[in-house]
């Protein structure tokens, strides 16, 4: 199923969101996280500070999946709207 939703109207919720729901998600090691874009405009899901994952441009209704294979904290953002931020925390 879907783990994180890019909410409708996300980019108009500047500066405080909501952008991603939930904004902070904790998952177990090895989990595949699925994002879905429920907004009417394009967004990305792009790891911040590393090139670990990048969805590319996601049109309305698009999904993106990434499997986390290392414990840690993974901030991410939308390259189209850089104020849109979220975090995935991976635990053992």
What are the key terms here?
mainly beta, Immunoglobulin-like, four-stranded mixed sheet, 92 residues, globular
Note the topology.
Layout: E1 4-6, E2 20-21, E3 24-28, E4 32-37, E5 46-47, E6 63-67, E7 72-77, E8 85-91
Parallel strand pairs: 1-4, 3-8
Antiparallel strand pairs: 1-2, 4-6, 5-7, 7-8
Description:
The protein has strands at residues 4-6, 20-21, 24-28, 32-37, 46-47, 63-67, 72-77, 85-91. It is mainly β. The protein starts with a strand and ends with a strand. It has a single domain (4-91), classed as Cupredoxins -  blue copper proteins (Immunoglobulin-like). The chain is globular and about 35 Å long. Strands 2-1-4-6 form a four-stranded mixed sheet, with no helix packed on it. The chain has a four-stranded mixed sheet with strand order 3-8-7-5, with no helix packed on it. It contains no helices and eight strands. β7 (72-77) and β8 (85-91) form a beta hairpin. The model has no long low-confidence stretch (mean pLDDT 97).
């Amino acid at each position: 199923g879907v783990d994180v939703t890019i909410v409708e109207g996300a980019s108009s919720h500047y500066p405080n969101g909501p952008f991603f729901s939930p904004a902070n998600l904790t998952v177990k090691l090895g989990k595949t996280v699925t994002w879905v874009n429920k907004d009417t405009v394009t967004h990305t899901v792009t790891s911040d500070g590393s090139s670990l994952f990048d969805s590319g441009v996601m049109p309305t209704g698009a999904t993106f999946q990434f499997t986390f294979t290392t414990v840690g904290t993974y901030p991410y953002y939308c390259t189209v709207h850089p104020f849109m931020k979220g975090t995935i925390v991976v635990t053992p």
